Automatic annotation (TrEMBL):
Signal peptide: none annotated. The lineage of its organism: Bacteria, Bacillati, Actinomycetota, Actinomycetes, Streptosporangiales. Belongs to the glycosyl hydrolase 1 family. This is Beta-glucosidase. The gene is bglA. The active site is at residues 159, 339. It catalyses: Hydrolysis of terminal, non-reducing beta-D-glucosyl residues with release of beta-D-glucose. One of its GO terms (molecular function) is beta-glucosidase activity. GO terms for cellular component: cytosol. Substrate binds at residues 13, 114, 158, 279, 386, 393-394.
Amino acid sequence: MPFQWGVATAAYQIEGAVDEDGRGPSTWDVFAHTPGRVRDGHTGDVACDHYHRWAEDVGLLGALGVDAYRFSVAWPRVQPSGTGAANPAGLDFYDRLVDGLLGKDIAPVVTLYHWDLPQPLEDAGGWMNRDTAARFADYAALVADRLGDRVDAWITLNEPVVVMAYGYALGMYAPGRTLMMDALPTAHHQLLGHGLATGVLRERGAARIGLANHYSPALPADASSAGAAEAFDVFMNRLFTDPVLTGSYPDVPGLDDVVRADDLAVIAAPLDFLGVNYYQPTWLTSPGPGSPLPFDMVDAPGHDVTGTGWPIVPDQLTALLVGLRARYGAALPPLVVTENGAAFPDEPDASGVVPDTDRIAFLASHIAAVQDAMDAGADVRGYFVWSLLDNFEWATGYHARFGLVHVDYATQRRTPKRSFTWYRDLISRSRA
């Protein structure tokens, strides 16, 4: 496939319309409406109102000139209870969106699960319950049967490590459970769901199938912290890649009781690409007394940071892409950078312009890092900016602006930032 330039979004972060046309509640609806969970009590009830303004947003994508648009389907919009027949009105929305994209010659890249689990499934145990993997495959079949004839690529799961770590272990994200190391079954059940859904998509003739993993290179903070960095790498990176590409888990305690015969064969179904979401590396040190984890995370030394305080380290994206090739060799499918971006406190100036020069510098340095990885032999087939729009940014609410397009949440006015024009021009030059 030719190299694809794109942008990405996620359903709960932009759609709004949480109680329209038969959509059921998700774990994020419940979490966001629980006092103290999200900064300033923000919710995704309206978000960017993309459910009603999708045509305007497709127009922005056309003006941007991207090859592909990665968006997620809201499971509770398609299957409100997480089981049973599809909600026709929910599928109708995505049907219109896909046709709108194709009308602009933009390839639809569909993520089936970007963290919005139907709340009835969470009530039955969520990803701690093996049955959720089977329900995910059923849902995948419903979406593929409606959209599969027009979708360019499918991504089964987005960042399963975040669901495990932030959602079930630490309680920072929905569903807000604090199981710590007892959350490990959620890793296996998500990956099993990925494998089962991959089989369903293959049966329906899916064009291309991938998985989008969050990767954070593990860097020891000092000479004595190599073991802590290795432990972090296993839990946060390899746990969600080794079984998919090699058919075996790294040495992680706590999975023996949940892995059944043939599970790993299902999980290791061949992929057409591996999605890489990269924002920052993590520095690690040995855990302090009483720590429930085999590592402690520490602040980055001597790096500029984004508006959210994340260190800006583009050369670690190069190292990550090249390192995946070195670790997995022939088992590694082509790579796609499915998310990369940065939040800065962007607001229009007196003339109405959003001069986000920090974001432009961030994107330029990371795109150069991707090119460096390709020059070193990494097979990278695409790059997607996070995100098209400023949006609901999970537990930080509407405070972190990642978009190429500024959104005034009071009026829903969209204003392309200077980074929008810069990215448009870069894409245009790449085709010259």
